[in-house]
Structure formats: structure tokens, C-alpha cells
Design goal:
Layout lengths: L2 E3 L4 E3 L22 E3 L4 E6 L2 E4 L26 E5 L8 H14 L4 E5 L5 H4 L22 H4 L1 E2 L5 E4 L8 H5 L8 H6 L8 E5 L6 H9 L2 E7 L8 H13 L6 E10 L4 H14 L3 E7 L2 H5 L7 H4 L4 H29 L1
Helix pairs in contact: 1-11
């Protein structure tokens, strides 16, 4: 039987992640008592001697409430903000953002796709570009727009978009010398974090202020690498930037993984590059490879994701598998972090 708490009640409980609670059946609270005001109906269930929510996430943390699938409410600490970044162009970064976000939405994860690339290719894949105001450019102005006014729904259920426009290209000069420039996106997202389970950020092919903003605001980084000659060259600069972000403004940022894109199993260079990337990144490399696929290239022209344009093609199946791997890695990282916090 679940333990239920009405909204506004006080829950005097600490929920350590992956901590056995044999006394739960008798209703006695586990761990050290802490006054926590319950802001929504919260139910925890006993499963294999552990306290877990019905969404399967081990309860953890101190003084705050985690996600609960019983009522569909979440705490902002559970939102995964995933930046997809590589300063090399043409590696399938925007294609990965669009279709990974769509795959997560299909899994009933409320997902926001943020376009931080001045080229606005992700935006054009969903909307007529001329009709969009405000856009992400307005987040970085002297009097920033509210993020809630920028976010708009797409025609795909559970998938939302924060569009871009070419004016973002001017930000490098405009933000130069502003001490809070790297934190603009993080500040803007604070008001909408609790609304989404996943936020995917498409970054420009450069390591300027927009990419830095994305990394400062993110919980995780995903690096797409093309299966081609010189594929790994340039990732050193990205990983150096990642290390500097972790050193000061965002110590919680973590590389979620590296995904091979534009893979062609017919060519020796793709197979050789795959082995080179595997040797370099080891366990960080996702098992799923994204192959070259005509349907992936065509779908944005029809303002479709691959799942609505060609749901049975190999590209759709590969992005479904990648989304499942992303969910698994985020879950494992979440439980590990909460276990460390509770220790």
C-alpha cells in the first residue's frame, strides 16, 4: 500500500536513495526526520525493500521532494537540461536535437527544444520563421523576455519549442564584458524548469557565448561526432571548454555521452572511425549509431520529425533507441547523485 500525503501537509521524513527501509510496512518514517512541506499529493511505494516513487525513481534527497508518477508532478531538480554541442559543423547536431526531442516526447516525456543556433534550422523545421516573435534572442537583451512567452507548442504532443533567429549572431559583441553574460540562459530557464522533464538545447557550431550559456545552464552534455576522417579533431577544444565550465560556473555538468552520426556501414572510413571513436571515448560512447538516411534529411523540409514523416525508416528506429539510452543514462546518473547527496 502506498503512503499518501495530502497537499500542504508536513512530511517528517528523509528519503535516502537506495536505502533499505524494512519498517516502511508499519508506516514508520525512514531516516532522520525532516520537516518537509508537501506541495502536491505524494505517494511512495515499497518495492524490494526500497522506497521508490511509482515512476520508478528511487526517492532521495534531503529537504526537498522528488518526482512522483502518481500525480504527474515533479520537482525542478529532476529536469534534465541536455546541451547537444560540437563546434564542428555538419555533424548532424540539429538533426539529433530535433529527433531526440521528438523521441522523448513520444515516450510521454514533456520536452522543450531550445534553438540557440543563429541559423535557426531547428526552428524552421517546425515553424514559418517570419511569424516568430519573441525568440531566444529576446532572452539575452537588456530587458529579457520571460521564457514562458517564448516557448510555443509544436504539432507533436509533449514537444515544445523555443525558437531562434539570425539576430542571435550579434550577441557575441553585445554581451562582451557583461559579468553575468554566461548565466543569461540559466536565469531564464529557472522559471520554466518545473514544467518540463527534458530540455534539449541546440547550440551553434562554435564555442562562443551562446554555447557557454548552454553549458552553464545544462545538467548534461551530448556530443555528436560524424563517422568521417578528422571526426575527433576539434573535440579537444569542446572538452576543454566543458572542463572550464565544470571548474567554476557549473560543477554539476556531466558528459552524458558521445553519439556517432552519419554512419555508413558500407564504407571502410565509417567503420575505422567508429573504432577510433570507441577507443577514444570508451564507455561514454552510446551503443546506438545514427546512420546516413535520406528520410532524416527530407523530413525538416516538410516541417516533420522523422517519426511523423517516415516512422518505419531506420533513422526513426535509431533515434528511438538513442532516446532509450539517454533515459537510462539520465536515470542512472540521477540515482547516483541522489545517493551521494544522501550519504
Amino acid at each position: 500500500m502506498p503512503l499518501a500525503h495530502a497537499p500542504g501537509s508536513v512530511v517528517a521524513t528523509k528519503f535516502p536513495g537506495a536505502t533499505r527501509v524494512p519498517s516502511l510496512a508499519q508506516g514508520s518514517p525512514p531516516g532522520r526526520n525532516l520537516p518537509i512541506t508537501c506541495i502536491f499529493p505524494l505517494r511512495f511505494h515499497r518495492k524490494g525493500g526500497y522506497i521508490v516513487t511509482t515512476c520508478g525513481i528511487a526517492a532521495a534527497g534531503e529537504g526537498h521532494i522528488l518526482a512522483c508518477g502518481c500525480c504527474g508532478e515533479r520537482g525542478p531538480s529532476l529536469t534534465c537540461v541536455l546541451s547537444v554541442a560540437n563546434q564542428k559543423g555538419g555533424v548532424g547536431k540539429t538533426t539529433t536535437c530535433i529527433n531526440l526531442a521528438a523521441a522523448l516526447a513520444l515516450k510521454k516525456k514533456k520536452t522543450l527544444l531550445i534553438d540557440l543556433d543563429p541559423q535557426a534550422n531547428a526552428t524552421i523545421a517546425f515553424f514559418d520563421h517570419d511569424d516568430l516573435q519573441p525568440t531566444m534572442f529576446d532572452v539575452f537583451t537588456e530587458h529579457p523576455a520571460e521564457m514562458a512567452k517564448i516557448v510555443r507548442p509544436t504539432k507533436d504532443e509533449n514537444l515544445f519549442m523555443a525558437p531562434s533567429r539570425l539576430a542571435l549572431a550579434r550577441l557575441e559583441q553585445q554581451l562582451a564584458g557583461q559579468f553575468d553574460a554566461p548565466f543569461k540562459l540559466k536565469d531564464a530557464l529557472s522559471s520554466v524548469l518545473k514544467e518540463f522533464e527534458f530540455i534539449i538545447v541546440d547550440t551553434p557550431p562554435a564555442l562562443g557565448i551562446l554555447t557557454v550559456n548552454a553549458l552553464v545552464a545544462s545538467t548534461h552534455l551530448l556530443v555528436p561526432i560524424q563517422a568521417a576522417y578528422f571526426a575527433i579533431e576539434g573535440t579537444d577544444d569542446l572538452l576543454e571548454t566543458y572542463s572550464r565550465i565544470r571548474a567554476r560556473p557549473n560543477p554539476d555538468l556531466k558528459v552524458l555521452g558521445v553519439v556517432i552520426t552519419l554512419f555508413d556501414k558500407r564504407t571502410n572510413i565509417s567503420r575505422d572511425t567508429h573504432e577510433q571513436i570507441r577507443a577514444t571515448f570508451g564507455d561514454a560512447l552510446f551503443r546506438t549509431k545514427i546512420s546516413k538516411n535520406v528520410r532524416l534529411e527530407e523530413s525538416p523540409a516538410y516541417k516533420e520529425t522523422v517519426f511523423t514523416y517516415a516512422p518505419k525508416c531506420s533513422g526513426a528506429e535509431e533515434y528511438r533507441k538513442l532516446a532509450q539510452e539517454v533515459l537510462q543514462r539520465v536515470q542512472e546518473d540521477r540515482v547516483a547523485r541522489h545517493s551521494q547527496d544522501a550519504a
